[in-house]
């Protein structure tokens, strides 16, 4: 449904996007993840026809947006980061106006009612947009994007500026929309993609530096070969005993709790095989063992690792 091939965008001498290529299949929710300034918004503006690429091509449902922009835009619903709404108009009136602009002929009221129901706006139909909360205004922004039943939804930072409850509601709404359209959303917030998307494209400095499913990224969080140990005992004695266990490469003290409780990260090239040896060492030493388990890297840590690896590769090149 979405295909970008070698997309490049220059602003004068500055290259914001550099040869980006990716595909999004029908019904997928794919996240563009990256720090601010990584090129996410520029890519979305090229996909929606707001910006012409310096080079490369974008197609929506097989339609080249440069060759047939009008037809391609019919396929797209777009929520920009700062959506333009008319604050003095009621929700229903605004959506009716958008439906007419979008060319929804003969079924305007039905399209408006359906969009309001999907976005949870039916009870707000007669409220002025300017008097709505930020979360409800964002719902109106999503409603205007789906009013013409597009095949592709492009959402730029859909939860930015919302409070925690509103974020949960908008994420739930986005998951609902996946049954209606293909969704591409951008964000710099890692939990956004981990709870919403099926696949992730990680961007940095205008390049795609990683692409994977959320499940695969999560599995990689256990890939450091580290073991988490929680044990009660004198720190120096416990650490010395663990260091003396065959196969242990390093021990890091993560937490020092009350009553002598320690949380330790143990690194070993033997991976999970080291855990039974650690248990034996601790039991033989007479220290109460509370936990010996794989230490999972957070998705945030994994994201930082990927960016650092890309930076090292760039410096090496």
Strand content: 25-35%
Shape, per Cα inertia axes: elongated
Mean pLDDT: 89
* CATH fold descriptor of the largest domain: Rossmann fold
Top-tier CATH class of the largest domain = Alpha Beta
pLDDT < 50 runs, ≥5 residues = none
CATH architectural grouping of the largest domain: 3-Layer(aba) Sandwich
Distance between the termini: 34 Å
Largest sheet: 6 strands, mixed
Give Rg in angstroms. 25 Å
Notable features of this structure?
Rossmann fold, elongated, 2 domains, alpha/beta, 29% strand, 11 helices
Mind sketching the topology for me?
Blueprint: E1 2-11, E2 14-24, E3 29-33, H1 40-47, E4 55-60, E5 63-64, H2 69-74, E6 76-79, H3 91-101, H4 108-118, H5 134-146, E7 152-156, H6 164-177, E8 182-187, H7 190-196, E9 199-204, E10 207-213, H8 214-220, E11 226-232, H9 235-243, E12 248-256, E13 261-268, H10 274-284, E14 289-294, H11 299-316
Parallel strand pairs: 3-8, 3-9, 6-7, 7-8
Antiparallel strand pairs: 1-2, 1-4, 4-5, 9-10, 11-13, 11-14, 12-13
Helix pairs in contact: 3-4, 4-5, 5-6
Would you mind describing this structure in some detail?
This protein is an alpha/beta fold and 317 residues long. It has two domains: 2-220, 3-Layer(aba) Sandwich (Rossmann fold), CATH 3.40.50; 226-294, 2-Layer Sandwich (Alpha-Beta Plaits), CATH 3.30.70. The protein contains eleven helices and 14 strands. The chain has helices spanning 40-47, 69-74, 91-101, 108-118, 134-146, 164-177, 190-196, 214-220, 235-243, 274-284, 299-316; strands at 2-11, 14-24, 29-33, 55-60, 63-64, 76-79, 152-156, 182-187, 199-204, 207-213, 226-232, 248-256, 261-268, 289-294. The strands form three sheets. The chain has a six-stranded mixed beta sheet, sandwiched between helices. The protein has a four-stranded antiparallel beta sheet with strand order 2-1-4-5. α4 (108-118) packs across α5 (134-146). The model has no long low-confidence stretch (mean pLDDT 89).
